[in-house]
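Reviewer 2 asked us to include a model.

Predict the structure of this chain.
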Amino acid sequence: MIKSIFIRAKFLPEYEHKTVEEPTGETRRGFFGGEKPVTRKVKKLVMTGQSNCRIDGATLAADIEVAARKLLEDGFEIMAITPVLSGAYDYKTNHETSEWFHYAWGWGYGYGYSYTEGVVITARARRN
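Predicted model (structure tokens):
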């Protein structure tokens, strides 16, 4: 019996230095007598999103290891681990038309890249 498993790669988180308000643990009496927490402005590295082109290789390796161990425990032997690539591209064009002529021009051609979307692990049942 042959079994294939797809392990999806995760994209790297993106970070940015931002100024955030952080509580100091102290409180101060407000104008109407209530207590309000005292904060201070601190510059911190904050996750702002995820990359759309850079994968987290360390996490992918760990996910592959977990899946491979599970296959081996279930009595399979791994035949192949194959990367699956995806790509992205973009281009821009402009078309101008007038009474006497029609022309088009563009920019950004060739802007493209590929990334590892994940891997396929192919295994077969061990023969006893």
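The mean pLDDT is 85. The beta strands are 2-8, 11-29, 35-55, 76-97, 102-125. We have added this to the supplementary material.
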